[in-house]
């Protein structure tokens, strides 16, 4: 009887354990990619509408964001909220276009993913409209069966500086 109980308990524990390292099928991976894209879309919509609540639900507790220099490293959700609120105070409104060049690289077990995409944005501030193209890189990790953002960096495209350099040299 003890052996039977031990066998049943072992089977139960094995069947309830998360499957780590299992290679997913193509269809399963595609479903995971859709879930990841949904996280990114929800994040962008929340930033655009200045609604921080949904953003918190999409971030890992171990989140880290990188800015353009070493002083712009954010290592907590509290610091991230302060940075986002400061950014929101710099403009009246932002409109994002459709995500472009959306690429997801993910391990075969769908536990970690890297996302790279472009996003056209129009910022409105003090009666001035500024159109920019943003490049995002995000890393997501699956925690408790949910995709969460664990790191990110954003860059803004700049004009073709090679033209400006050639003009300066010609003078």
Question: What do these coordinates show?
Answer:
There is one protein chain. The chain has 171 residues and is of the alpha+beta class. The protein has one domain: Nuclear Transport Factor 2, Chain: A, CATH 3.10.450. The chain has five helices and seven strands. Strands 1, 2, 3, 4, 5, 6 and 7 form a seven-stranded mixed β-sheet that branches. Mean pLDDT is 87; it is low at 163-167.
End-to-end separation? 94 Å
Q: Give the class-level CATH name.
A: Alpha Beta
Sheet with most strands: 7 strands, mixed
Specify the number of helices.
5
Blueprint (SSEs and pairs):
Blueprint: H1 2-16, H2 26-48, H3 52-58, E1 59-66, E2 73-74, H4 77-88, E3 93-96, E4 100-106, E5 112-125, E6 128-143, E7 146-156, H5 161-170
Parallel strand pairs: 1-7
Antiparallel strand pairs: 1-2, 3-5, 4-5, 5-6, 6-7
Helix pairs in contact: 2-3
Please outline what is shown here.
This protein is an alpha+beta fold. It contains five helices and seven strands, in the order αααββαβββββα. It has one domain (22-170): Nuclear Transport Factor 2, Chain: A, CATH 3.10.450.
